[in-house]
Amino acid sequence: MFIFDRKQEIYEIGGVKVGGQPGECATVLCGTIFYAKHYLVEDAEKGIFDKKAAEDVINKQDEFSDLTGNPCMMQIFSESPEAMEKEIAFCTEKSDSPFLIDSTVAEAKIAGLKYVDEVGLTERAVYNSINVSCASEELEIIGESKLEAAILLAFNPKDSTVAGKMDLLETGAGTFEKGLVQLARDLGITKLMCDPATLPIGAGVGSSVASGYVIKSKYGIAVGLGIHNAPSAWTWLKTFRKEHATKGPSGWEGLGADVFHICDIGSNVIPVIAGQDFVLYGPIENAPTVFPLVGMADMIVAEANAAEHEIEAQEPHPYLKMSA
């Protein structure tokens, strides 16, 4: 394995450590709840959901976090300001884990940010994300809040290469007057987590993974990906899944769903082997398969860097918890 020459920052967010050299801190796993068409959501706009089912998946993620030693966060994805407040209130009552404020609707994220400020939850909150789509109002409210942690989405619509992502982080790439890293710091963000933005297989995902090496080398900040989106958007895999859902050569019936699931879950080890710090692994109900798999990858990285570079794994860590 490898280590970075530059000092790597380790942030504590709601009691969870994220960052550091490969093998030092366990990979933080973030499961998404209340996402679009989530089976437990009854009315996405009003924030009405099956509370028993939601509590079950939150508890299951916490249980597997305790089992493997991989810290977790709840990625709360809401469709409206009303839903955001209700869903944050529910999730933070049921779990002590940190959480991501996430939505495709800026007003919903702003409402979430204001809510956590009002009720004193900013130490557990991560804003997802500061990106090229952020309007001045959104940035102003981030700056006025007590928020310390945010994800910087290094998606450059003009250039999906490593150079393009770095240009956005360093200079603003013509969208902002300064790079996203300095912009975030000027807004009072002291705990920077960078998501290089996962693109589909064949359309830039390789650069998404590769850019993590450069970002950590230059800035020493935490880096992670929602890598499961790559196989989810993979045309070949979607076609295979459809063609082999119920029919096909002998023994292939139903194989499509199995192959899709393996690629979806298995993709989450890629950022770990690439020395990254957190993974947005997708649906929170996938925790029982994701946590042991990522835990295994963490053990391999930690074992290598303990032997080759004298990197000590910090508690909690699969290397310390899952070893025979």
Question: Quick summary of this structure?
Answer:
This protein has 324 residues and is an alpha/beta fold.
CATH architecture: Alpha-Beta Barrel
- Walk across the major sheet and give the strand order: 3-6-7-8-9-10-11-12
In total, the number of strands is 12
Following the backbone from N to C, one meets helices and strands in this order, namely EEEEEHEHEHEHEHHEHEHHHHEHH
Cα(first) to Cα(last) distance is 22 Å
Report the sheet with the most strands, covering strand number, pairing sense and barrel closure.
Answer: 8 strands, parallel, barrel
Radius of gyration: 19 Å
What coarse outline follows from CA principal-axis ratios? globular
CATH class label: Alpha Beta
Total helices: the number is 13
pLDDT averaged residue by residue: 96
Which fold does the CATH topology refer to?
Answer: TIM Barrel
Helicity, as a percent range = 40-55%
How much of the sequence lies in strands comes to: 15-25%
Instruction: Report low-confidence residues grouped into runs of 5 or more.
Output: none
CATH H-level homologous superfamily name: Dihydropteroate synthase-like
Identify the quaternary structure here.
Answer: single chain
Helix/strand-derived category reads alpha/beta
- Tell me the count of domains: 1
